[in-house]
Design goal:
Strand order of the largest sheet: 5-16-12-6-9-8-7
Strand content: 25-35%
Largest sheet: 7 strands, mixed
Shape: globular
Radius of gyration: 26 Å
Number of helices: 5
Number of strands: 16
CATH class of the largest domain: Alpha Beta
Oligomer: single chain
CATH architecture of the largest domain: 2-Layer Sandwich
CATH topology of the largest domain: Major capsid protein gp5 fold
Order of helices and strands: EEEEHHEHEHHEEEEEEEEEE
Distance between the termini: 60 Å
Helix content: 10-25%
Number of domains: 2
C-alpha cells in the first residue's frame, strides 16, 4: 500500500472549487428606458416647460368682424435637482492575495449591479407616485383591492389603455406605448384567454425584459416592478403595479459625468449576459488601490465604489397610468 494516499495526506485533498462564479440573480432594469433624459453641467437644476393647448373654435367668423383674442396659454414649469447617491466596499491586501476569486472583479460586478438596481428603483418609485391611478376589478383604492376578485384582467388593461388614449398621449417609440408589470402579474394575465389570443410573444427576452406586444404596447416584465406588500384589503393582500408609459410622461436629470447608464453585467465575472460588450457600466466605478485610501503605511487597504446623480420628475401625470391590482400570488 502506498504511504502517500488520501488517508495519510487528507489535508492535501481539498474539495473541488468551481472557479466560475455563479451568476447573481438581479431584476431586469427597465423603468428608466422611456423617460426624457437630460444632463446639466455647472448648474444646480434643470427645467422643463410646457404650454397648455387652446380649445377648439366651433363658432363661425362674422364677416368684417375680428374675433376676440385668445387667452394666453398656460405655462407649466417642472424643475429637477439631481441628488447624489453612492456606495462602496473595502478589502485588504491579505484577501486580495489569498482569495481564489479575483476580488476587484467580483466587487465591481456587485457594485455595478447595485448602482443599476438603485437607479431603477428610484425611477420606479417616482413613476408610481406621480402616475394617474386606476384600480382593477371593482376596487376604488389600494386598500379595497382584494384577491381573487380584483386580479388583473384583460378588461382592466383595456380600460387603462382607453384612459391613456383618451388623454391624447403619444407613443414612446415606433407607435408603441410601454407596459411594465411584475412576473406574478404576467402569470395571472396569461390565464386570461383574450390576452393569450391577442398577445404577440417574443422568443428571447434575455436581460431587456421585453416579452412581446399587445394593444400597440411593448410589454416588459421585471421583478423590480412595484409591489405593495399587505396594503390591499384587510392588510393581507399584496398589491402590484401595472404601468402604461407614454412619451414625455417623466424626465430624468443627472450631472454630466455622473449619469447612470444601462447595466448589463450579470454574466460570469461581470461580463454581459446578452453578449453585447458595448453596453456601459451604470457609472464609472471608483477604485482606490492599496495604500491610496488615506493613512495606510503598510498598504493594507483598498476600496471600490460607485457614485451617481439623479432626479426624476413627472412631466405629464395623465400620460403615465398605474393600474394597481392583485394577482394569483397576492395572497400566497
Amino acid at each position: 500500500m502506498a504511504g502517500i494516499n488520501a488517508s495519510t495526506m487528507s489535508n492535501a485533498v481539498k474539495t473541488f472549487y468551481e472557479k466560475r462564479l455563479l451568476m447573481r440573480a438581479i431584476p431586469r432594469l427597465v423603468h428608466s428606458n422611456f423617460g426624457e433624459r437630460a444632463t446639466i453641467n455647472k448648474n444646480g437644476s434643470y427645467e422643463w416647460r410646457k404650454y397648455g393647448a387652446l380649445s377648439a373654435k366651433t363658432t363661425a367668423l362674422t364677416s368684417g368682424t375680428t374675433p376676440v383674442e385668445e387667452s394666453t396659454p398656460s405655462l407649466t414649469l417642472v424643475t429637477a435637482t439631481p441628488s447624489w447617491y453612492g456606495s462602496w466596499l473595502g478589502y485588504t491586501d491579505q484577501i486580495d492575495l489569498q482569495s481564489i476569486d479575483p476580488v476587484a472583479n467580483w466587487i465591481s460586478g456587485v457594485l455595478g449591479e447595485q448602482a443599476g438596481v438603485s437607479v431603477d428603483t428610484l425611477v420606479r418609485n417616482a413613476m408610481t407616485a406621480g402616475a394617474t391611478k386606476l384600480y382593477s376589478g371593482d376596487a376604488t383604492s389600494r386598500g379595497t383591492i382584494d384577491a381573487p376578485g380584483d386580479d388583473l384582467s384583460y378588461a382592466d388593461i383595456l380600460y387603462a389603455m382607453a384612459t391613456i388614449w383618451g388623454n391624447d398621449a403619444l407613443a414612446v417609440s415606433g407607435g408603441q406605448f410601454a407596459i411594465i408589470l411584475h412576473p406574478h402579474s404576467l402569470a395571472t394575465i396569461y390565464q386570461d384567454p383574450v390576452w393569450v389570443n391577442l398577445f404577440v410573444e417574443e422568443s428571447d427576452p434575455l436581460r431587456s425584459g421585453f416579452i412581446g406586444r399587445i394593444l400597440n404596447c411593448d410589454v416588459y416584465s421585471t421583478s423590480n416592478a412595484r409591489e405593495y406588500a399587505n396594503e390591499g384589503y384587510g392588510s393581507t393582500t399584496d398589491v402590484y403595479s401595472f404601468l402604461i408609459v407614454a412619451k414625455e410622461s417623466y424626465g430624468m436629470v443627472s450631472m454630466a459625468g455622473l449619469q447612470p447608464k444601462l447595466v448589463d453585467s450579470a454574466g460570469p465575472m461581470g461580463k454581459p449576459l446578452t453578449g453585447d460588450g458595448k453596453k456601459a457600466n451604470p457609472v464609472s466605478l471608483i477604485f482606490k488601490g492599496l495604500g491610496e485610501t488615506g493613512f495606510d503605511p503598510l498598504n493594507q487597504r483598498a476600496t471600490a465604489g460607485w457614485k451617481l446623480t439623479e432626479d426624476i420628475q413627472i412631466l405629464n401625470s395623465s400620460w403615465i397610468i398605474d393600474l394597481e391590482h392583485s394577482n394569483a400570488l397576492s395572497d400566497a
